[in-house]
């Protein structure tokens, strides 16, 4: 496997395998200075991609924003390799991801990698609001955390507000 930093190729893969226009992935890559994208190649074929970013909470956190794998490469360790690679590249003590509750593959992936799953409704309002903004998550998602618990990680910062406004709210409003 070869990992290549390539925003355009990663956006194409997100659009192709995520099932829709990658407006939020594109917004984070264009508007957030600590965002990145990596494509993993097996031979000459793009097997998968990840879009990620760092944000300051109680400590620096890496958000695994989009992880996609081409169907022919699934169940071959591509997503595991991508997430591990990005964890190392970010070098943060905290790692976060969200996914729909129905996404069994994401649940299996993140749990295998040592992430704990949390449901938003189980969190106090203040903690939930900070982490929803930090991950650009949805109320019906599951939050995956590695390196801490939500109560220890969540800290309302100006950086979280700026991230949310620029990469979540403005694209939602079409700006």
From TrEMBL:
One of its GO terms (molecular function) is acyltransferase activity, transferring groups other than amino-acyl groups. Gene3D superfamilies: 3.40.630.30. Residues 1-137 form the N-acetyltransferase domain. This is GCN5-related N-acetyltransferase. It comes from Pyrobaculum neutrophilum (strain DSM 2338 / JCM 9278 / NBRC 100436 / V24Sta) (Thermoproteus neutrophilus).
């Amino acid at each position: 496997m070869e990992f290549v930093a390539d925003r355009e190729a990663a956006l194409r893969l997100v659009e192709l395998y995520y099932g829709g226009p990658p407006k939020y992935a594109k917004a984070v890559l264009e508007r957030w200075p600590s965002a990145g994208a990596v494509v993993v190649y097996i031979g000459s074929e793009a097997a998968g991609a990840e879009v990620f970013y760092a944000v300051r909470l109680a400590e620096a956190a890496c958000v695994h924003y989009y992880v996609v794998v081409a169907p022919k490469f699934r169940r071959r360790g591509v997503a595991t390799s991508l997430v591990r690679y990005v964890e190392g590249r970010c070098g943060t003590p905290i790692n976060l991801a969200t996914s729909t509750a129905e996404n069994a593959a994401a649940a299996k992936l993140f749990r295998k990698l040592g992430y704990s799953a949390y449901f938003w409704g189980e969190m106090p309002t203040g903690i939930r609001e900070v982490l929803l903004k930090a991950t650009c998550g949805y109320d019906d998602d599951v939050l995956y955390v590695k390196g801490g618990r939500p109560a220890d990680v969540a800290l309302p910062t100006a950086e979280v507000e700026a991230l949310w406004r620029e990469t979540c709210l403005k694209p939602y409003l079409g700006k």
